[in-house]
Automatic annotation (TrEMBL):
A GO biological process held by the record: peptidoglycan catabolic process
Protein name per Swiss-Prot or TrEMBL: Lytic transglycosylase domain-containing protein
InterPro entries: Lysozyme-like_dom_sf, MltB-like, Transglycosylase_SLT_dom_1
Example GO molecular function: peptidoglycan lytic transglycosylase activity
Domain spans labelled Transglycosylase SLT: 31-119
SUPFAM superfamilies listed in its UniProt record: Lysozyme-like
PANTHER family named among the record's database cross-references: LYTIC MUREIN TRANSGLYCOSYLASE (PTHR30163:SF8), MEMBRANE-BOUND LYTIC MUREIN TRANSGLYCOSYLASE B (PTHR30163)
Length: 174
């Protein structure tokens, strides 16, 4: 959902809700539990979650119809969701790990990521964030605090928790 440069600035703000994400320790437990059950490194799961919904801040449906914190298409969810709730990170994070494992992770992370989202930019971005987390696990806390930014034709906007009831704001210094 949020990969910089993947689309032109939009003339309208998104139809998302911005919500407070689950606490970082809770998410880390979910990533590590999924890693233990599938072998998919937790750092890749966190990186996908970061790119897709800023670790759960974005509540909305993508232009392709993907939903939930890990942005699954409903048809893909049927294959990997194991009867869970597409909107619940306790179900979506392990489902993402199952999808990646089915497509070659952890041996072939690039190939597995390609099955998650067939875009070289996506694979590159998720890999870069994951490798940064592997080099410096403390980066996780920083990533968890990232705000939701949106490219609008009038400039980059910050979408605060509470959006759309709380208005989008211009990014300071831009």
């Amino acid at each position: 959902m949020l990969l910089h440069g993947m689309s032109a600035p939009a003339p309208r703000l998104p139809r998302w809700r911005i919500v407070a994400p689950p606490p970082p320790a809770e998410l880390l437990r979910l990533y590590r539990r999924a890693e233990r059950s599938t072998g998919v490194p937790w750092e890749y799961l966190a990186a996908i979650h970061l790119v897709e919904t800023r670790m759960g801040r974005i509540d909305g449906v993508s232009s392709a119809g993907a939903r939930g914190p890990m942005q699954f298409l409903p048809s893909t969810w049927q294959l990997y969701g194991a009867g869970g709730d597409i909107e619940d990170p306790r179900d979506a994070i392990p489902a993402a790990a199952r999808l990646l494992a089915r497509h070659g992770a952890p041996r072939d992370m690039a190939g597995a990521l390609w099955h998650y989202n067939p875009s070289d930019r996506y694979v590159g971005a998720v890999t870069a964030y994951a490798r940064n987390l592997q080099r410096s696990p403390s980066a996780y806390a920083g990533y968890w605090h990232w705000r939701v930014l949106y490219q609008h034709v009038r400039g980059v906007r910050v979408l605060p928790v509470g959006y759309p009831k709380r208005p989008a704001q211009p990014l300071a210094g831009r």
